[in-house]
Q: What sequence folds into this?
């Protein structure tokens, strides 16, 4: 395996390296923006599905927690790698397909990076509404640049006040992370406490005070009125969009190469983050719906997020002052989510470049150990997404990519067991959890095929286009820049199982059958579950 020093791992572009400067608690706080993601779509899911929405969140975060054990095992195999589960999974798939491995990394990045744009846009909206009021002329000003009807009806690229203020927010987050992981973790610890404590209060106080009403939670029947094909499709659509938030604490293992003790810290970080997410994603939706009822959650301000802070204040019995505190908390929650996303997604780009999947310039780190080239790329991409007129569409396309990544990486758990069976595993998941992970991979394939229909017919098509962009990107890096050879550091990492030889494929035809079955499940689900 690639040698590791206290300074960090080597950068393929020269310059600095990522530094071994944090422990599992720091990684936990770096992932602490994930619980706040529940606020991004809690209203949208309730408006789409109806009464079962609280159960969707509980089921989704349970899926995410079970999947985390697979990711914890494969992360431990590569203590010198950064970038998260997709990077560790790519090391399993590269023996069987040169393109599947970078596709996994690419899909993970496409899934995570839009948090910057969506969070920045929502935060900007809160600031503008608070300062000027919802009906102010400044909130209506915009210049349309490009019509994107070919992707989704009514979608445009535009400049407005929200995109401008959102850009400023992203630049501030960039500056906060420019000085490396250690300082960023300290900042996120403070902000994380300011967010998690109010979220826990919102989740617990209504339950303890008896304000969560059973009639607001039952009957568990979709908004369509029955558990027929339409109702089941709506439910699957809710699970589809919830996965983007509820699975996301796996970002806690994006920092493996920056852990002081990766063998111990990796599993602790992801399990601790998972436990907190299980609590938040259970309590907050339960209390939210139990107090407001589906009718209350269908209000425009709840669906688009602009009135969530006021609703939360009412849930805990607060007046105007508490409402203002909740607005500040919500802004901090959005900033925290942006910080978590920028830290994780930029490291995915960085390690993807070091391993030979993505353009070489992305593997530059500054003297503080921050992957600045990847961070600038993240920022530039999201400045474009900020100009999109429909953030929910961006989220839905992003989640298609996320479910593809999850499918591939859950199967990488058993692939690593076969190809690298004799490798030392600092933490080894019980075999039953690998089987469960493989089963959930196909559940995610069903959600991908069925759920995308719920959020617009252009969703799955747009996701396929976005995913296909990796083909020219990888082809240029591998065949033009690297002349058809992978970097030595990546090949050295493959020796975790005893062989750098890519032709050694102990799993035989099983990975290809798995891929074919996954594609078949997506197609069948897409045809069966339609509105």
A:
């Amino acid at each position: 395996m690639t040698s590791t020093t206290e300074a960090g791992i080597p950068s393929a572009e020269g310059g600095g390296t990522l530094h071994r400067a944090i422990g599992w608690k720091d990684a936990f706080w770096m992932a602490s923006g994930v619980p706040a993601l529940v606020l991004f779509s809690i209203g949208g899911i309730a408006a789409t599905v109806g009464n079962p929405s609280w159960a969707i969140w509980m089921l989704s975060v349970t899926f995410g927690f079970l999947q985390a054990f697979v990711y914890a095992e494969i992360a431990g195999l590569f203590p010198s790698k950064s970038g998260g589960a997709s990077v560790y999974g790519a090391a399993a798939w590269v023996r069987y397909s040169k393109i599947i491995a970078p596709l996994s990394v690419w899909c993970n990045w496409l899934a995570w990076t839009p948090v910057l744009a969506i969070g920045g846009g929502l935060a900007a909206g809160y600031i503008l509404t608070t300062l000027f009021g919802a009906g102010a002329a400044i909130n209506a000003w915009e210049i349309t640049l490009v019509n994107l009807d070919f992707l989704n009806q009514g979608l445009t690229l535009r400049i407005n006040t929200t995109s401008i203020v959102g850009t400023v927010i992203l630049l501030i987050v960039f500056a906060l992370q420019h000085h490396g992981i250690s300082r960023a973790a300290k900042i996120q610890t403070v902000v994380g406490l300011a967010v998690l404590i109010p979220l826990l209060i919102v989740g617990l106080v209504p339950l303890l005070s008896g304000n969560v009403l059973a009639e607001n939670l039952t009957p568990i029947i979709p908004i369509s009125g029955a558990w027929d094909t339409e109702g089941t499709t709506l439910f699957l659509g809710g699970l589809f969009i919830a996965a983007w938030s509820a699975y996301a604490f796996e970002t806690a293992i994006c920092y493996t190469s920056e852990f002081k003790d990766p063998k111990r810290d990796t599993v602790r970080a992801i399990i601790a983050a998972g436990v907190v997410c299980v609590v938040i994603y259970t309590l907050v939706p339960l209390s939210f719906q139990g107090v407001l009822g589906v009718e209350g959650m269908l209000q425009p301000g709840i669906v688009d997020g602009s009135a969530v802070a006021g609703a939360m204040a009412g849930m805990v019995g607060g007046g105007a002052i508490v409402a203002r505190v909740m607005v500040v908390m919500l802004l901090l929650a959005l900033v925290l989510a942006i910080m978590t996303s920028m830290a994780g997604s930029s490291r995915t780009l960085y390690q993807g470049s070091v391993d030979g999947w993505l353009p070489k310039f992305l593997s530059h780190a500054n003297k503080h150990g921050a992957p600045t080239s990847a961070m600038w790329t993240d920022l530039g991409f999201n400045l474009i997404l900020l100009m999109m007129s429909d953030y929910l569409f961006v989220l839905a396309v992003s989640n298609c990519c996320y479910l593809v990544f999850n499918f591939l990486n859950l199967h990488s758990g058993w692939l690593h067991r076969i190809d690298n069976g004799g490798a030392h595993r600092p933490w080894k998941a019980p075999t039953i959890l690998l089987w469960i992970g493989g089963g959930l991979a196909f559940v995610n394939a069903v959600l991908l095929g069925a759920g995308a229909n719920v959020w617009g017919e252009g969703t799955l098509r747009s996701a396929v286009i976005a995913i296909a962009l990796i083909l020219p990107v990888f082809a240029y890096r591998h065949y033009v820049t690297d002349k058809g050879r992978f970097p030595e550091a990546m090949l050295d990492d493959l020796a975790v199982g005893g062989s750098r030889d890519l032709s050694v494929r102990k799993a035989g035809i099983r990975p290809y059958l798995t891929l074919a079955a996954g594609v078949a499940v997506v197609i069948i689900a897409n045809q069966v579950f339609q509105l």
Notes: The domain at 24-528 is CATH 1.20.1740.10 (Amino acid/polyamine transporter I). The chain has 21 helices and two strands. The radius of gyration is 22 Å.
